[in-house]
Amino acid sequence: MRFEQEPAHHHGKPGRTAIVLVNLGTPDAPTAAAVRPYLKEFLSDPRVVEIPKAVWWFILNGAILPFRSKKSAHKYASIWTPEGSPLLVHTMRQATLLRGALGERGHQVEVVAAMRYGNPSLPSVLDKLRADGCQRLLVLPAYPQYSGTTTASTFDAVFSHYARVRNVPELRLVRNYHDDAGYIEALRQSVKKHWDKHGRPERLVMSFHGVPKRTLMLGDPYHCECHKTARLLATALGLSQQEYLVTFQSRFGKAEWLQPYTAPTLQKLAKEGLKRVDVMCPGFTSDCLETLEEIDMEVRSDFLTAGGAEYRYIPCLNENPAWIAALASISERHMQGWPTDADPVQRAARVQDAAIGRERALALGARD
Ligand SMILES: C=CC1=C(C)c2cc3[nH]c(cc4nc(cc5[nH]c(cc1n2)c(C)c5CCC(=O)O)C(CCC(=O)O)=C4C)c(C)c3C=C
Ligand SMILES: [Fe+2]
Ligand SMILES: [Fe+2]
Question: Signal sequence span per UniProt (predicted)?
Answer without folding.
Answer: none
